[in-house]
Design a protein that fits this description.
The chain has 301 residues and is an alpha+beta fold. It has six helices and 14 strands. The strands form two sheets. Strands 1-6-7-8-9-12-10 form a seven-stranded mixed beta sheet. Strand 8, helix 4 and strand 9 form a beta-alpha-beta unit. The longest helix has 16 residues. The chain starts with 9 loop residues before the first helix and ends with a strand.
Length: 301
């Protein structure tokens, strides 16, 4: 049974998330806002993919310690879209508060409890309007909440949103956000295939942006090739300019220059990537997460 909700304010989005805990969402359409910005020249879309590291009380990297650093990073960068992984519901509420009233988010827990990890997508409401969203699980039964049939260590999922730019004649595009399993190569391979299949079922006239922690190194694993087979390109590879390369998972240890990129931002080929970077922001040696966020500045075409 499709879940429908009127989403005109940020709290209603959160209510939709809670409702999704017990009822799978099926291409949930969102009413369009009557407030539309004036038409103007195309603007770059700033996108971030960020494994947040789930909130815990374990020291020395508890969420209480990391949250101020996370807040400073996100406020400095102010991306228009943030695809997050591992966020727990109270943690996502903290981030929502810290980002401020101009942001909202879409997501649901990967199991039946809203306090489980989510693939939440945050977005700048001044720039973007969500038109529809949905979730599916990386399994043989993608619309069974919490399903896990491929031997993954945890249930894994995808959250996607179709956005429209908030200007007259604004461009529509898709964002898909995911987190592949860290332990099972078979689960990752099947997940890549399902992701490619689902992207192939989207409106081919609209650009696609994919964010995620794929738990394999770019260019060093067949899963990378399988995901790109969906007709995607790696923004790090296509960027006109890029920052220094670091391994995107550091585990609170010294950073690895030239290390493996397991966190990616991918797009359909018509999207222009002006620059890409791996953000190494820290305060007094404290990183906001055990992953480094990946960023890309895009023109949707």
């Amino acid at each position: 049974m499709p879940h429908h909700s009127r989403v005109t304010r940020r709290p209603v989005l959160k209510a939709a998330l809670a409702a999704a805990v017990t009822t799978p969402l099926s291409s949930t359409a969102l009413p369009q806002s009557s407030a539309v910005a004036q038409e103007g020249p195309p603007r770059r879309l700033e996108v971030m993919s960020f494994n947040l590291r789930f909130a815990s009380t374990a020291e020395p990297h508890s969420w209480a310690v990391r949250r101020p650093v996370m807040r400073e990073l996100l406020r400095r960068e102010a991306p228009h879209v943030i695809g997050t992984q591992e966020g727990l519901f109270p943690q996502l509420l903290d981030i929502d508060t810290d980002l401020g009233p101009h942001y909202a988010w879409v997501g649901t827990g990967r199991l039946r409890g809203s306090h489980d990890e989510s693939m939440a997508v945050f977005y700048d409401r001044r720039r973007l309007t969500p038109l529809e969203y949905d979730h599916f699980w990386l399994s043989d039964t993608p619309y069974v909440i919490g399903s896990n049939t491929w031997g993954a260590s945890f249930a894994r999922m995808v959250t996607w949103v179709r956005f429209r730019e908030r200007r007259e004649g604004g461009r529509e595009f898709y964002v898909l956000n995911t987190h592949f399993d860290h332990a099972s190569p078979y689960a990752r391979t099947r997940s890549a295939g399902l992701l490619a299949e689902r992207i192939g079922g989207l409106d081919a006239s609209l650009p696609v942006v994919v964010t995620g922690d794929f738990n394999v190194a770019a260019r060093k694993d067949p899963v990378y090739d399988a995901v790109l087979s969906a007709g995607l390109v790696d923004t790090w590879e296509t960027a006109r300019a890029r920052g220094a390369l670091y391994g995107t998972f550091h585990g609170y240890r010294p950073l690895t220059p030239g290390g493996d990129r397991i966190d990616w931002i991918l797009t359909t080929p018509g999207v222009i990537t002006h620059w890409a970077q791996i953000n190494t922001f820290a305060e007094d040696g404290q990183y906001p997460s055990d992953h480094l966020p990946v960023q890309a500045s895009l023109s949707l075409g």
